[in-house]
Amino acid sequence: MKIGMVGLGRMGEGLSGRLRNKGHEVVGYDTNPATTEVASLKELVAGLPSPKVVWLMVPSGDVTETTLNEVSELLGAGDIVIDGGNSYYKDSLRRGKKLGEHNIQFLDAGTSGGIWGLENGFCLMVGGPQDAFDHVEPIFKALAPEGGYAHVGPSGAGHFSKMVHNGIEYGMLQAIGEGFDLLQAASEFDYDLKQLASLWNQGSVVRSWLLELAELAFEADPHLENLKGYVDDSGEGRWTVLEGVERGVNVGVLAQSLFARFTSREEDAFSMRVIAALRKEFGGHAVKSE
After folding, report:
1. 162 an active-site residue?
2. Catalytic residue chosen out of the listed positions 162, 215, 236, 280
3. pLDDT tens across 256-274, in order?
4. Is 141 annotated in the active site?
5. CA end-to-end span of the chain, whole Å?
6. I want to staple 288 with a disulfide (CB 3.0 to 4.6 A). Which of 69, 99, 228, 243 is the partner?
7. pTM here?
8. Pick the catalytic residue: 169, 178, 215, 281?
């Protein structure tokens, strides 16, 4: 299958590479002249067979809105747009309805896997029309590991589930960060944090990929002395907490983990260094150095 990929940053590049490795043809466009493969969105769309399939992998918010508007003006009835970014699900509901009025099909694909997705595959939570999903399913199958993609519901369902996924991620990172903070504080034992991260992945009930990444982070910097405990939040955690409030669902752990990130911008706790290191390991997120 031939598709157009709009946005060739860390994730867009990884998605494109994995699709090509699996035998699909990808034409990429980016506003950065150094990385784009075509000169314009018009050129990208013109080179696609019908029904045209365009995957957006750009920052959420205004950038997605502007890009989607530009792309939709170049598409026609039966064409398909996939938004793989971390868009707010209410925006996806609106966008799906708007594009549907022009018979353009819209899929919101929550995409997880970070910078490791090229090698290990991406987890994909897809919302939107079933027939559009069925048409592009070979793309999802190529991107995901075995059992790593699903059609989870109508428009908005993909990004809602990815929002909750990222909210859970906040809580897991916070728990790991606080645990290693306590280990670091027990100076009388002089723990090897890399050793413990590795040990806990051998049959422990807390074994996880995040602990594997913690092991890598501690191997590179045993006490994380070369980065600051400053942790950004990219929106999904805030949306998750707000949804909990609106729906009357107790998301206290997720809320506390979000608020801890706000505190990290004033303090330099070791727990926040751990979280910053893990976000760098799985997503290539920027960190602040000492």
Report:
1. yes
2. 162
3. 999 998 888 777 789 989 9
4. no
5. 46
6. 228
7. 0.91
8. 169
